[in-house]
Amino acid sequence: DGGITQSPKYLFRKEGQNVTLSCEQNLNHDAMYWYRQDPGQGLRLIYYSQIVNDFQKGDIAEGYSVSREKKESFPLTVTSAQKNPTAFYLCASSPGMGPQHFGDGTRLSIL
Amino acid sequence: GDSVTQMEGPVTLSEEAFLTINCTYTATGYPSLFWYVQYPGEGLQLLLKATKADDKGSNKGFEATYRKETTSFHLEKGSVQVSDSAVYFCALISAYSGAGSYQLTFGKGTKLSVIP
Q: Which residues on neighbouring strands pair with residue A6, listed in sequence order?
């Protein structure tokens, strides 16, 4: 079955540490996205990529970085510069203008 | 810019009650409209969509009609079940989101709890 796989499901970060969240899709979608979800709030866009080797900042990119070396993969790094990283992170992909398909998310917490 | 406004939650209903979750939008041109559902601890799943005025999206007993004249896309279900308890998000994609991007603009979500 085609879909989006996010890993790990739970992740813990220590002070001053960078952590990387994985997102892989086998839907052959060109576009991929990272969102942050905080309790009781909607989704906020962190970064998106419409094509390999290209990505754009979303609304809350500070403290995050991404890469898009392969069509299937769009990892997100939460850097030590992100002072409030505790949140639920969702990855999505879409075939251009079509609806976005989401992974099951990674919950990041601070130790 | 584009925006989506949903009714504030939480909404608590008894099983078999009628559900309406209001959604209105502001967008340039003719956006595509979506309802997503998020079950506890999971990602978002596409529930239904509509791409032009007067289209009706439907799935799993849920329906929503694209009303251009009122810029609305209200979600309805005739008889809710306990298993429908989740957070529901209204969203749009506008061709004018900027620079050819296909970014979704989300509402803040409405939490629905259905009690037996």
A: A23
pLDDT for residue A26: 96
CA distance B20 to B17: 10
DSSP string, A24-77: EE-S--SEEEEEEE-TT--EEEEEEEEETTEEEE-TT-TTEEE--SBTTB--EE
**How many Å from the N-terminal Cα to the C-terminal Cα in chain A?**
35
Structure confidence by residue, pLDDT tens digits, A18-70:
999 999 999 999 999 999 999 877 889 999 999 999 999 998 999 999 999 99
Which pLDDT belongs to residue B46? 95
CA of A105, closest CA in chain B: separation in Å? 6
**Separation in Å, CA B27 to CA A50, B58, B74, B105:** 21, 23, 16, 10
For residue A14, give both structure tokens: 């220590």
Residue of A nearest to B42 (CA): A104
User: What one-letter code names the amino acid at A103?
Assistant: G
Tens-digit pLDDT profile for residues B47-106: 999 999 999 999 999 999 999 999 999 999 999 999 999 999 999 987 655 545 567 889
Chain A residues with CB under 8 Å of B106 CB are: 42-43
Phi (first) and psi of residue B84, to 5 degrees:
-85, -5
